[in-house]
Amino acid sequence: MLKKHKPFLLLPVLFTLVLLLLSFLIVRRNSVRLGENFQVSNVTVNVDLQDRRFLTGTISRFPYGARQVCLRFDYDRADQGSEIQVVWRWGDRVVQAETYPLPAPSGSRMYCLLQESGVPLPRGGYTVGLQYRSEAIPEFHFEIY
């Protein structure tokens, strides 16, 4: 008699496991990790606010005397009310780190590094990094020679 009931007990357990697996797969497929879809494109690093001809990496050296260096980029797929952190480094030292709101799901932003005293930025290698939520976006490098 015990052998007759085993298939009936196995069937609900198997059915429950299949439903559990399917629901897990559906939830995993439809859920989006924070920042997974956030995109940054058309990144420029330049000393001239109006000059957008050069994408980062094509001209990443600026002569001494530059009083500011600006990072400009387009972004897309940001969550409503989210923020981005911009960290400027000179060598290994953080010289400026600020968090800014992203006012729309997509758009363009520009952030500049300058000294409050108005003197030229020091010579050396610089890095600017972006962080959206908890995910770091690759850093961009430039040099003042």
Question: How would you portray this structure in words?
Answer:
A 5-stranded mixed sheet has the order 2-8-7-4-5, with no helix packed on it. It is 20% helix and 43% strand. It has one helix spanning 2-30; strands at 39-46, 61-62, 68-76, 83-90, 93-101, 107-114, 124-132, 135-144. It folds into 2 domains: 1-31; 39-144, Sandwich (Immunoglobulin-like). The protein is an alpha+beta fold and 145 residues long. The protein has 1 helix and 8 strands, in the order αββββββββ. β7 (124-132) and β8 (135-144) form a beta hairpin. The radius of gyration is 25 Å and the shape is elongated. The model is unreliable at 30-35 (pLDDT under 50).
Share of β-strand residues: 35-45%
- The count of β-strands is 8
Write down the CATH class of the largest domain: Mainly Beta
**Average of per-residue pLDDT values:** 81
**N-to-C order of helices and strands:** HEEEEEEEE
Low-confidence segments, given as residue ranges, are 30-35
